[in-house]
């Protein structure tokens, strides 16, 4: 997905609508989501924006990466696929599970 962007270093007061407003200056925003902590309801300080085209995504990166928004310099780049988390529980030592 060449049009899905990661947006980091967000102010904790920014919400989805604010994110959409900042990015709409660079094209049509398909979606904008600030990630929120499930327990506290507070922003985690990052989010994702999906632009309508790769060209609009690149324009948003060029226009907003490093830009000061609410006293914080944004980090904007192409979102990478989420890497699988290790797990399954337990501890491993030489193939033995405890």
Characterize the structure shown:
Helices cover 19% and strands 35% of the residues. It is α+β, with helices and mostly antiparallel strands and 98 residues long. It has two helices and eight strands; from the N terminus they run βαββαβββββ. It has one domain: Alpha-Beta Plaits. The strands form three sheets. It has a four-stranded antiparallel beta sheet with strand order 2-3-1-6, with helices on one face.
How are the strands of the largest sheet arranged? 2-3-1-6
| Strand count | 8
Q: Compute the number of helices.
A: 2
Percentage of β-strand residues? 25-35%
| Count of separate structural domains | 1
Based on helices, strands and strand pairing, what is the structural class? alpha+beta
Helical residue percent band: 10-25%
Element string (H = helix, E = strand): EHEEHEEEEE
The dominant shape is globular
CATH superfamily: RRM (RNA recognition motif) domain
Q: What do we call the CATH topology?
A: Alpha-Beta Plaits
The major sheet is characterized as: 4 strands, antiparallel
Mean pLDDT: 90
Which residues sit in consecutive blocks of at least 5 with pLDDT less than 50? Answer: none
Compute the separation of the termini in Å: 40 Å
């Amino acid at each position: 997905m060449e049009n899905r962007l990661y947006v980091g270093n967000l102010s904790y007061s920014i919400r989805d609508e604010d994110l959409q407003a900042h990015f709409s200056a660079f094209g049509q925003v398909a979606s904008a989501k600030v990630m929120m902590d499930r327990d506290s309801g507070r922003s985690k300080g990052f989010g994702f924006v999906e632009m309508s085209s790769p060209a609009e995504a690149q324009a948003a990166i060029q226009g907003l990466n490093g830009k000061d928004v609410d006293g914080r310099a944004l980090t904007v780049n192409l979102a990478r696929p989420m890497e699988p988390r290790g797990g399954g529980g337990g501890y491993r030592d030489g193939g033995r599970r405890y």
